[in-house]
Design brief:
CATH topology: Hypothetical protein af1432
CATH architecture: Orthogonal Bundle
Number of domains: 1
Structural class: mainly alpha
Largest sheet: none
Shape: globular
Number of strands: 0
Radius of gyration: 21 Å
CATH class: Mainly Alpha
Strand content: under 5%
Helix content: 55-70%
Order of helices and strands: HHHHHHHHHHHHHHHHHH
CATH superfamily: Hypothetical protein af1432
Oligomer: single chain
Length: 374
């Protein structure tokens, strides 16, 4: 496939922080994707959760399955827009590498514990994983990924952190947060594919868990429309097949909407290069106005009925207690940390806890306290 003029072309990459010889058979973005897949942090995603804790069931989404779903959606949309699919895949597979155990509960706890020491952002931690924490190569720390991949990984960034990164890397991946610019279209697409994926799989996991009923979901117009389309074609359908076909139609509707709305936005803006995309005042990869409203309404429903469900909140309280206790134990006695983290202060404690899987955190907490919270 011929890439569009506004796509990120691997031959025009801004390069790596440490120069390396070109690979003989792979593009620079293919090489990034492969490094991410072989990283330790990527393998850990299989035991890091989304909404439901790892021990609650084998079929609920994890950070790994979520990342694969984002990559699939991103590549499907990117192909229609003639963007670089390998870059999309690399960003999608790496975007959650910095996520803590126990989902957003872990993010909130670490940010609170680290408030006096610079705070904690999972997007910034994902960049830290690929820039510093992975220890695989003899010549450098991290994975030494291309600028374009790192740009996409840093989805959000507080201004104070952006200023620090910009000071160390002028004009680099944090530059846009200080100057109101956009990332590449490939990065923008991963941001939106992330939203589409987690809304869909949280419906699936929510119904599977019994915390949300499909009938409840019919109050959400997007769900009702897609469910009605399924029943119009298959009137006798029920149970899992009805749920799965409804979600399939929701995904398709959102994917086609993004393709159409983004084509229109790109056509109106007329960027002739990836750098011209970065100068735009707003993202060009987007939903239509109607689909944006529909997606927002779905998110509000999930927040009220799933994320705030008493059973989910009960698990969250225990997860927060576990991680706060772990942080305090390591802070009071760094000798409890592995050797490579003992001299790194509070940031090293955050690095170590953020890298834990759910089940390792549970075992470590039980080992150090003699208590089992789950």
């Amino acid at each position: 496939m011929t890439l569009s003029a506004y796509a990120c072309h691997p031959t025009h990459s801004r390069g790596r922080r440490i120069a390396e010889p070109k690979a003989p058979t792979r593009s620079e973005f293919q090489r990034d994707r492969d490094r991410i897949i072989h990283s330790t942090a990527f393998r850990r995603l299989v035991y890091k959760t989304q909404v439901f804790m790892n021990h609650e069931g084998d079929l609920f989404r994890t950070r790994l399955t979520h990342s694969l779903e984002v990559a699939q959606l991103g590549r499907s949309i990117g192909r229609s827009l003639r963007l670089d699919e390998d870059l999309i895949e690399a960003i999608a597979l790496a975007h959650d590498l910095g996520h803590t155990p126990f989902g957003h509960a872990g993010q909130d706890v670490l940010d609170d514990c680290m408030k006096p020491h610079g705070g904690f952002e999972h997007n910034l931690q994902s960049l830290r994983v690929v820039d510093v924490l992975e220890q695989r190569y003899p010549a450098f720390d991290g994975l030494n990924l291309c600028f374009e991949t790192r740009e996409g990984i840093l989805k959000h960034c507080a201004r104070r952190n952006a200023e620090v990164i910009e000071g160390a890397e002028p004009g680099g991946v944090a530059h846009r947060f200080l100057h109101g610019q956009q990332p590449s279209l490939e990065a923008q697409l991963c941001n939106l594919a992330d939203e589409v994926a987690y809304n869909a799989h949280d419906i699936d996991d929510g119904v599977r868990s019994g915390l949300v009923e499909l009938e409840q979901l019919r109050q959400v117009p997007l769900v009702e429309r897609c469910l009605r389309e399924t029943l119009d074609e298959f009137p006798a359908l029920k149970g899992k097949r009805l749920l799965f076909d409804t979600i399939r139609r929701m995904l398709s509707a959102q994917v086609y909407d993004i393709i159409d709305a983004s084509r229109t936005a790109i056509g109106e803006a007329g960027p002739d290069s990836a750098d011209a995309v970065r100068q735009q005042p707003k993202p060009l990869i987007r939903f239509s106005t109607g689909m944006r409203a529909a997606s927002s309404e779905l998110k509000r429903f999930l927040f009220a009925n799933l994320y705030r469900h008493p059973q989910v909140q009960g698990m969250r309280v225990r997860a927060e207690e576990l991680l706060r206790e772990l942080f305090a134990l390591y802070a009071n006695d760094p000798a409890l940390l592995p050797e490579e983290y003992k001299q790194g202060g509070f940031r090293a404690i955050a690095d170590y806890i953020a890298g834990m899987t759910d089940r390792f955190a549970m075992k470590e907490h039980e080992r150090l306290t003699g208590r089992r919270l789950f």
